[in-house]
Amino acid sequence: MAAEPADERPSVQAVLQRVTEVLRSHQQKLQSRHEAPAPQQVEALLHKQDLDALQASLDQIHPADVAYILEALPVDERLVVWDLVKAERDGEILLEVSDAVRETLIAHMENRELVAATEQLDTDEIADLAPDLPREVMQDVFRSLPLEEREQLRAAMSYPEDTVGALMDFDIISVRDDITVEVVLRYLRRLDEMPDHTDQLFVVDRTEHLRGLLPVNRLLVTDLDVPVSKIMVDETIRLNPEEKAQDAALAFERYDLVSAPVIDRDGKLVGRVTVNVVMDYIREEAENEMLSAGGLREEEDLFSSVWNSVKNRWTWLAINLVTAFIASRVIGAFENSIGKLVALAALMPIIAGIGGNSGNQTITMIVRAMALGQISAGNARKLFAKEIGVSFINGLIWGGVVGLFAFLIYHSWQLGLVMMSAMVLNLLLAALMGVSIPLLMQKFNRDPAVGSSVLITAITDSGGFFIFLGLATIFLV
């Protein structure tokens, strides 16, 4: 296997396929080899050439792509590939992999390797890794940092994960407001490189209080003798370290920001937030909400042990089991009615299924609106009224459809009317619960997305069975 030329970078899917082929070939050779005569020594040499070529391919792709490959491999194969990665890239890749995969990689590394990998990162990146690193590793990292970076790391680690301070970057360029454009350009030319995502410089006074922003595009087209104070932007989006990270994400989306300053309570510039970090935060939040909606407590490694996966999934399965027992008892209470009119058994799932889907649609809209900060005490009542109106109209339309279906199949207009009525009432129940469940969770400081779909399905199933069978018992049996 020959290495790719440097100017022809392999795609991540091509490298993943190559990794899989090399590891599979290696496993087959290990299974067939009991001794090491000369021919098999040649095989071992060829295998080493394969690994060297594979390592060269890994070196050519972005750390995020290496992370993708590691996440797509079973644990034993993942560790083989991890050993092929150059040590100087370990820190960058650890930042890119998911939390669950990061645990397996860190457990495979010695403390000295972890210290070396961490020392290559910026202080805000070290703070991201800190919760997963052993305490003795963090102590060694602290001792190795200069005093200023040590204080920055302490500050970054002091903020909760869901705040702006946890997203903050200390790699900033600030200039004084009383200097000219020429001085600024001379200063920039002395730098080795500009920080990533530098679209603007931060203008401060002598006491480091933020005065405004100096966009790079404005800097480049202005005469050299113009003072910075004349061309800086005074009205700016300013973030506070204690603010919710969600608020920062909304600001970046609303105002199309690339970077934004972070100031303390006294108005002093302490850092910045950049769009790449915000995008990572939004992606992680979206993934967490998706997992929470399915009743998963935390991110799960795709190839984690069976027992770890069981522990992650059992809670809401247990709740589901309880709600299923409740639904079964609701049905059991109407055994006589079902026995007298067998058609009820065939029609029950339609009412419950449509109600569950409608409730999930409502919950999805409400949770999204909460994430965007669009729901308040003042508009909650109107929201209830709107969702109930939507469900009532949908209930009439689709209830009419299923009622007509029941009439055509079973030749009973009474059964069709019961079907339509049950559909309307169950959709109204779904709307009521779809709005109430997220609002109640938020009131008690719980994540509205956690298990909401499980709860609404349980309620609409049991409620739908009770409504339909109750109406059938009253009017048909």
List its traits:
5 strands, disordered N terminus, MgtE N-terminal fold, Tetracycline Repressor, domain 2, CBS-domain, 3 domains
Describe the protein:
Helix 8 (123-129) packs across helix 10 (147-157). This protein has 477 residues and is mainly alpha-helical. The chain has three domains: 12-158, Alpha Horseshoe (MgtE N-terminal fold), CATH 1.25.60; 174-293, CBS-domain, CATH 3.10.580; 306-475, SLC41 divalent cation transporters, integral membrane domain (Tetracycline Repressor, domain 2, Orthogonal Bundle), CATH 1.10.357.20. The protein is built from 22 helices and five strands. The strands form two sheets. It has a three-stranded mixed beta sheet. It has a two-stranded antiparallel sheet with strand order 4-5. It is globular and about 90 Å long. Residues 1-7 and 34-39 have low confidence and may be disordered.
In the sheet with the most strands, the strands line up as 1-2-3
Largest β-sheet summary: 3 strands, mixed
Question: What integer is the average pLDDT?
Answer: 85
Please trace the helix and strand order, writing H or E for each element: HHHHHHHHHHHEHEEHHHEEHHHHHHH
Secondary-structure map with pairings?
Elements: H1 12-32, H2 38-60, H3 63-71, H4 75-84, H5 90-96, H6 99-108, H7 111-119, H8 123-129, H9 135-144, H10 147-157, H11 164-167, E1 174-176, H12 181-189, E2 200-204, E3 210-215, H13 216-220, H14 228-231, H15 245-255, E4 259-263, E5 269-274, H16 275-293, H17 306-332, H18 335-340, H19 343-371, H20 380-410, H21 413-443, H22 452-475
Parallel strand pairs: 1-2
Antiparallel strand pairs: 2-3, 4-5
Helix pairs in contact: 1-2, 1-3, 3-5, 7-9, 8-10, 15-16, 17-22, 19-20, 19-21, 19-22, 20-21, 21-22
